[in-house]
Design a protein that fits this description.
The complex is a heterotrimer. Chain B is mainly α. Chain B has 12 helices and no strands. In chain B, helix 6 crosses helix 8. In chain C, strands 13, 16, 17, 18, 19, 20 and 21 form a 7-stranded mixed sheet that branches. Chain C has a 6-stranded mixed sheet with strand order 6-7-8-3-9-10, with helices on both faces. In chain C, helix 11 packs across helix 12. Chain C has 2 domains: about 230 residues, Rossmann fold, CATH 3.40.50.300; about 240 residues, P-loop containing nucleotide triphosphate hydrolases (Rossmann fold), CATH 3.40.50.300. The chains are: A mainly alpha, B mainly alpha, C alpha/beta. The interface between A and B is large, with 50 and 51 residues.
């Protein structure tokens, strides 16, 4: 029998090794799953993790990597800050949707005017929309003690219905022959979020994600506010003793993660997505939770984890095309990845000892 | 038109999945464990139950399989949080994401198939509704009038004290998680087999999260869970009736009602518990805290 | 095999090792029926581990135990209870949300039916003078009442050996007297009591024999009444204690003034009611009281964790009432709360980060919000050097320090910031004698340099040793401070509220 002994601090190599171990375990478990379903496990794992970058169609799929990783990283950076403080915003999906709606609203209101102010205004509106949607659970927690987990999650469903209503109602393209969905912003130069360097997939959202990585790294490692956030997550009473106001922290973390998720939504609707449709939310907000954990809540880790999960998205689509794997394979992979990550994380917090044979 | 027998039955039926899941979570949380994976357990129960009912033609067997599937999936959560001491919030989230993915993957062949009919029970109401109603007093009695229930509450209230008195904290919690998983699985199966009558991806649509909110509303009490589930059922039915009556509000906005109602209820109840501490209905003392004993 | 009627329990060569600590090493001693046997030792001497082995909570790695002539190797507390061992825990093993009767039922292995339990409880509590209402919830009970629940729960199991882990640490001196009367009655009926404590005086007056532990080993078993407290302390610590140096202090102007301080109750705590006092420069004010009478709330109100109404907390005339901890530190009012791990320090963080936790403002460790890690490390090094903190270096996590070393670090961190007023709660709780002496001396030295010091403590000896004036905190009210000079334990006991609600018991006894 094995038992766990707590350890005060994990060796640094183990902190780095556990995410890698989790990825490898997920590949193995996924392979077993594919074999059980009657697919060739090696081919399936290769298609998902290797082919998007180095396979025959890589030149087509490689730019997709940044397109998918951008929003994941942008959202996860914000979420990680909150998770460090023990503030559980799991409604980033809703903040993403509302951010997209608010940004699109600015563009649709301005249409057909042209001007350099339009896109920055959209970015601000997107961030403000996500921020406001995140402030709802923050304020309800601060004023009434309502769980931010449940409120932020409920607001995802509300936001999804809001997007559907917008797509069918107020934002419907008047020249769209009655089809649901807004105007396509990609065809509106002042509002479009185009690919900045051809063939890379990088749009303004990717730039924002890169900035977010640097900014959250500075915040968490070099700024006293980040230090207070970490202290609050580890020992809330000690943080209060140090002078951190719990209510201000809740508002800061939910507001920040909301704003970043909202910006991600805006960049998506003005770029790769192009328009508001009823199923505008695409699950980035939930996948970003996995990205945050896989990156060990560290900005650089999130950068790598975001790229990896973007890879599984693209690989999943590829596997769907070439091997007829079900589309949901990626979701199962992501869920398994989080399980394995949590399990391997135990190694960093505890030493595993074999217990003496008990009398 | 507002409240006839048909509407009432519709309400009770709509409340049943939430009732099952919430009762299960009451047991889990009373043992001091916060399982946020209810949504994942429900969706897995919905698919497993539907598949079993479809394969055998027996809805009773469908619900039984859903219970086993729910308990089985919950064991992943139990092993991770109780043996490996992982964070309960993160693990519950993982369970939900995993359950949603798993069912999306394996559910494809079942799409568009009609469920076998649920046989009508006494008074024309199906057995699951009766079972749900019967579970409320049974679980209340079990928690408050039996030794096993007392031990479960003790473990949830103060796991260090329970351990010091020699109770097996981990074993009690694993059993509670399994029971909660079984009930959530049955609740999910009720959605696919008895309400929607078919399988669609993501069909639980937040019911598991609403059940979690209802446990807070219920003050961790089975009777409160019943009240909360009926409240939710009422909002759902009202919303459907308004849609059917062609009220001049877009469908998408009307369908927000259950979620907004949940938030409202959560706010009201949290406010009451914040300002009136010490009375009944506060959270179990060890809720969500990991337990680790050095021997 | 030796089976004698004069021996109820015997331990032979017991040993237990935790990672990095030899908690018990070759421990042998015996307890007779009907005796009150003290287990005496410093914090960390291994008393708790030893009794946990007897109660089946911890399994020994070496040695064996005998109880009433039979081998005693309980697999769990249930087995220990079946063998006739009962235990009253220091940090009560009670369930706040449950009733007294439910708590008692959880502590019994074969409880009577629900309806028959309350009369049984009433019966036992009457027989031993321990009044209890079986229907009440634990959450509303005082510390003394909670202890009664624990004792009654044990007595219903009719133990042959009753273990009590530091029972008087939550009682006033008067309540402790009543407890000893109960224990005497039990002993007279043949029950053996194993009594853990580090309070020398009560052991000398009330215990028949005492086994002394030091660093996990038995130093000896003695008749405590035949030794002076000083001699017992020397056996416990292994060296003569040097008295603290109180000289060279001069009281100046009032620095910290508190007036009409009232607060909401903290988590399961007590509201402060109209608390007022003034401390002068160079003076130490001691605040005594049984745990849970408002100590947590008082230090939170002074550190700034809870804001007060205007005019309630003043430092050299400046009103700090509305300010949070950081601005209060800037003004010179510093605090060190009781709980080292999780309140005064973040256990998982390094000593450098913990130095930053409260030192950021006064030591300028984060100019314009940007952390100067080198400066923080240097500050941590200064604390380590000045207060003789035993640690591999400033990068060590706080949790891996021993209680005494971490406490020296926490107190040192505040003292090195040169406060104008310092408030500490339980500065030497759970700390070995050497570290405790160093901390007390450091507080005296701080006062000598002209700071106003408030020491909140449950250790009356400590308060008498340190403070110039003494005030008692009881049910959230603070008595008027009186000079410590000439104050007796008896008088202090009355200031602390005497025997809370035990008058009934007194009559019955």
């Amino acid at each position: 029998m094995l038992r766990l002994e707590p350890r005060p601090a994990a060796p640094a190599w183990l902190e780095l090794a556990t995410p890698v171990m989790a990825v490898i375990a997920t590949m193995i478990a996924g392979g077993v799953l594919f074999a059980l379903m009657g697919f060739d496990p090696v081919a399936a794992v290769r298609t998902i993790f290797w082919d998007p970058l180095f396979g025959p169609a890589a030149s087509y799929s490689r730019p997709q990597l940044l397109v998918k990783a951008g929003p994941l990283i942008l959202i996860a950076c914000g979420l990680a800050v909150g998770f460090r403080a023990g503030i559980w915003n799991i409604g980033a999906e809703g903040q993403y949707i509302v951010g997209g709606l608010c940004g699109a609203a600015v563009a649709l209101a301005a249409y057909p005017a042209e001007g350099a102010w339009i896109f920055p205004a959209m970015v601000l509106a997107g961030a403000a929309g996500g921020w406001a949607w995140g402030m709802i659970p923050a304020m309800l927690r601060n004023w009434f003690g309502a769980s931010e987990i449940l409120v932020s999650l409920m607001l995802v469903y509300v936001a999804q219905r809001l997007a559907a209503w917008m797509a069918f109602g107020p934002m419907r393209n008047p020249e769209g022959f009655g089809m649901p969905g807004s105007r396509n912003l990609q065809q509106y130069p002042s509002a479009a979020n185009p690919e900045l360097v051809a063939g890379t997939g990088a749009h303004w959202g990717v730039v924002a994600a890169a900035l977010a990585v640097v900014a959250t790294w500075f915040l968490m490692s070099r700024h006293i506010r980040g230090f207070h956030i970490r202290a609050a997550g580890l020992a809330p009473r000690a943080a209060r003793f140090a002078g951190v106001s719990p209510a201000a922290l809740v508002a800061f973390c939910l507001g920040l993660s909301g704003a970043l998720a909202g910006m991600a939504g805006l960049f998506e609707v003005a770029g790769p997505g192009g328009q508001i449709i009823d199923s505008f939310g695409s699950g980035y907000g939930f996948t970003a939770i996995i990205v945050a954990f896989l990156g060990r809540l560290h900005p650089l880790g999130i950068l790598l984890a975001g790229l990896l999960l973007a890879l599984t998205y693209i690989g999943g689509e590829l596997a769907q095309l070439t091997l007829q794997l079900p589309a949901a394979t990626v979701q199962v992979f992501q869920g398994m990845l989080l399980f394995f990550l949590l399990a391997f994380d135990t190694l960093t917090r505890f030493r595993i000892r074999s217990a003496r044979a008990m009398a | 038109m507002i409240l006839d027998v048909t509407t009432l039955l519709l309400l009770i039926s709509a409340a049943t999945p939430i009732l099952f899941a919430a009762l299960g979570e009451v047991i889990v949380e009373r043992a001091g464990v916060l399982n946020l994976g209810v949504e994942g357990l429900m969706i897995v129960g919905a698919l497993a139950g539907f598949a079993a009912a479809h394969a055998t033609g027996s809805t009773a067997l469908g619900f039984a399989v859903a219970a086993v599937a729910g308990a089985g999936l919950a064991m992943i959560f139990a092993v991770l949080t109780q043996m490996l001491l992982t964070n309960q919030v993160a693990t519950g989230l993982a369970l939900t994401l995993f359950g949603l993915g798993l069912t999306a993957m394996f559910g494809k062949p079942y799409e568009g198939i009609k469920a076998p009919p649920v046989p009508a029970g006494p008074l024309g109401v199906n057995a699951m509704i009766w079972l749900g109603l019967a579970l409320v007093p049974l679980i209340w009695l079990g928690l408050n009038r039996t030794r096993a229930g007392l031990i479960l509450r003790g473990v949830g209230e103060n796991h260090d004290a329970a351990h010091a008195l020699g109770y097996k904290v981990r074993a009690v919690r694993i059993a509670a998680i399994a029971a909660g998983g079984a009930l959530a699985g049955m609740g999910g199966a009720y959605i696919s087999i008895a309400i929607v009558l078919q399988w669609t991806e993501g069909m639980t649509a937040g019911a598991g999260w609403i059940a979690l909110a209802i446990v807070v509303f219920a003050g961790w009490n089975p009777w409160g869970a019943l009240a909360g589930a009926w409240l939710f059922g009422g909002v759902t039915v009202l919303q459907l009736r308004l849609q059917a009556a062609g009220v001049a509000v877009p469908v998408q906005l009307l369908s927000m009602a259950p979620y907004l109602a949940t938030i409202l209820v959560l706010v009201l109840i949290s406010a009451r518990q914040t300002y009136a501490r010490g009375g009944g209905g506060t959270a179990p003392g060890s809720l969500g805290r990991p337990f680790h004993a050095l021997r | 095999m030796r089976v004698t009627t004069t021996e109820l329990f015997r331990a032979e060569g017991l040993g237990k090792t935790y990672p990095g600590v030899r908690a018990n090493d070759d421990v042998s001693f015996s307890v007779r029926p009907g005796e009150i046997h003290a287990l005496l030792g410093e914090n960390g001497a291994g008393k708790s581990t030893l009794v946990k082995m007897i109660y089946g909570l911890v399994r020994p790695d070496a040695g064996r135990m005998r109880l009433g002539g039979a081998a005693h190797a309980p697999a769990d507390p249930r087995a220990a209870r079946a063998a006739g061992v009962g235990m009253v825990f220091q940090h009560f093993s009670l369930f706040d949300a449950l009733s007294v009767a439910e708590n008692v039922a959880l502590g019994m292995d074969a409880p009577p039916p629900r309806r028959q339990l309350p009369p049984r409880i009433a019966e036992v509590s009457a027989a031993y003078g321990l009044p209890l209402d079986p229907a009440r919830r634990i959450a509303g009970l005082s510390a003394g009442e909670r202890q009664r629940v624990e004792i009654v729960r044990c007595l219903l199991g009719e133990p042959r050996l009753l273990i009590m882990d530091e029972p008087t640490s939550v009682l006033t001196p008067q309540e402790a007297e009543i407890l000893f009367a109960t224990l005497r009655k039990l002993a007279a009926r043949g029950t053996a009591v194993l009594y853990i404590s580090h309070k020398l005086d009560e052991i000398r007056t009330h215990c028949d024999r005492a086994t002394i532990l030091r660093q996990g080993r038995v130093v000896g078993t003695v008749s405590p009444g035949e030794h002076t407290a000083r001699a017992l302390a020397a056996m416990m610590v292994g060296a003569e204690m040097r008295p603290v140096d109180r000289s060279g202090r001069q009281a100046g102007d009032a620095v910290l003034v508190v007036r009409g301080l009232t607060s909401a109750p903290g988590h399961a705590g007590t509201a402060l009611r109209d608390v007022g006092f003034a401390v002068r420069a160079g003076e130490i004010l001691g605040i005594g009281g049984v745990a849970g009478n408002g100590q947590e709330e008082l230090i939170a109100a002074l550190s700034g964790e809870t804001a007060g109404r205007p005019g309630t907390v003043l430092l050299s005339g400046a009103d700090l009432s509305a300010l949070g901890p950081e601005p209060r530190r800037r003004a010179g009012l510093l605090a060190a709360p009781e709980d080292r791990l999780g309140h005064a320090a973040v256990p998982e963080m390094s000593l450098t980060d913990n130095a930053l936790l409260t030192g950021a403002t006064r030591q300028r460790l984060a100019p314009r919000g940007v952390i100067d890690h080198a400066a923080a490390r240097a500050f941590a090094r200064r604390i380590i050097a000045a207060f003789d903190v035993r640690t591999p270096g400033p990068g060590t996590p706080a949790a891996s320090l021993s209680g005494g070393n971490l406490q020296k670090f926490v107190i040192g961190r505040e003292i090195l910031q040169d406060p104008r007023a310092l408030v500490v709660n339980q500065p030497t709780w759970g700390v070995d004698a050497g570290a405790a002496a160093a901390i007390r001396q450091a507080l005296l030295d701080l006062a000598r340099r002209g700071a106003a010091v408030v020491v909140i403590s449950q250790d009356l000896d400590e308060l008498l040793e340190l403070s110039d004036r003494f005030a008692a905190l009881n049910a959230g009210r603070l008595s008027a401070p009186v000079p410590t000079e000439g104050l007796t334990i008896e008088r202090i006991g009355l200031m602390l509220g005497g025997a809370h609600g035990m008058e009934v018991a007194h009559v019955a006894a």
